[in-house]
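Friendly challenge for the regulars: who can give me the structure tokens for this chain first? No prize, just bragging rights.
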Amino acid sequence: MAPPLRVVRVCCRSALTNGTVNRLIVVRRCANSAAIRDGSAKRKWMGVVGLEVHAQLCSNSKLFSGSCVQFSAPPNSLVSFLDASLPGTLPVGYQVTQQRCPIAISGSLAYSLYAGKNRNHMISKLVRIKQIQLEQDSGKSLHDDARTQTLIDLNRAGVGLMEIVMEPDMCCGDEAAAAVRELQLILQTLGTSHGNMSEGQLRVDANISVHRPGEPYGVRAEVKNINSARFLARAIDYEILRQIGVLENGGKILNETRAFDYKTGQTISMRDKEGRQDYRFMPEPNLPPLVIYDNETIPSNVNPQQVVNIDHIREQLPELPNEKRKRLVEKYGILAEHSFTLVFLTLSQNENGLVQFFETVVEQTQINPTKVIGWIINNFLAFLKQNNLSVTQSPISPSALSELLNLLERGFISSSVAKQVFAELWKGEGKTAVQIVEQKELGLIQDHKKLEQICQSVIEDHPAEVSEIQQGNWKVLNKLIGQVQRVTHGRAAPTQVKAILEQKLS
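First reply, four minutes later:
Bragging rights claimed.
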């Protein structure tokens, strides 16, 4: 029988652990900052960033107990004897982790971020993943400075976590934040973790150091428990500058654990970094090994439903964020940043069905997809945000928007009228776009003679503008076009109006 791919044995870890910055010039190498140098010495400093991401698993109960998993529950209301490590259940206070045999090793994560002087184009990056391991969350300490006491809430103790350890392949806050956002989208797509950082379902520890090119990496400091991608970027960039300032002033960087204060934008020293021996890793004899197979290694006498088969899991994977973005760009010709907006909002902000909404509209219209995406982002999403609604709550269906855009594409209404009709559709009164156009007489004026008369009237009422045009300043023509639109309440085709005015003024 062929050997299994990997045997994972769970270990336990003891829970004993729960300068002035000089004026610097940032040298742009990535999206935000990468190499930093002193303005006079021109000796560059490079930032080095590695991440440890803890993602809470989607589960109704904890890893080894039946206690519920619920955010913002009353303190210590979701704790079993096992979670509290009471005498007779487990040794006092330890955390389960797959330190020796992680469930996955030697992976990578591809991500993209905006770059350039105006951040107007995207670049692709890759960060190596050292390992992914299963862990238990620990309790939460609540510090009461007024009473000089610390309270313990064990609601989180025992909650299943997936720890993703990334290699130090990043060099600035923007890169780290972009990698975490991409990871967040992947986890949400797979249904592995809700990834809500504001609820602590995704927390990041950043290991940060600086060094000069060609020299060994410097001493690193770890900034713990960051629960926002934006704060992560700020914390990393501040810490890089802080370390450079210390070194430039002749100081030494301590191997320590720090916290990020989002109010001040600074990192704060918490404690010296403990040594590996302080973790006290030891095998857990009460937990059996987890054996992972693929189609080639799975034994014939084993029930496929009772083992982990990675090939079977791979076949069932949904379309991942990066694949979805590539498909949207290649199939519809939209900009990469627009595909990022669609996918990001669909997954990270509970805008379920936004991509599907867009694709449905495209299928039901003759209009170019690049124009459809403009309406989705500039109008549809703006109205959703303004009214605090999700896609599924929208009073405008894909078919209703498709009908409106078809009227615009066929030349029955102008773009300004289309926006008026969109606002009417949003009221949810059950009227179609065609009915609104007919009832409010918003259709484009089809009578060419009538339109000529309106243009002639505008010319006669604006002699000053006409004089400028006759002297060669044709830019003023746009003012006359605007006046015609005002008189017709947006019911005149701009191209037709422009042609009539040019003919009369030539």
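The radius of gyration is 30 Å. The chain has three domains: 6-283, 321-439, 448-505. Your move, everyone else.
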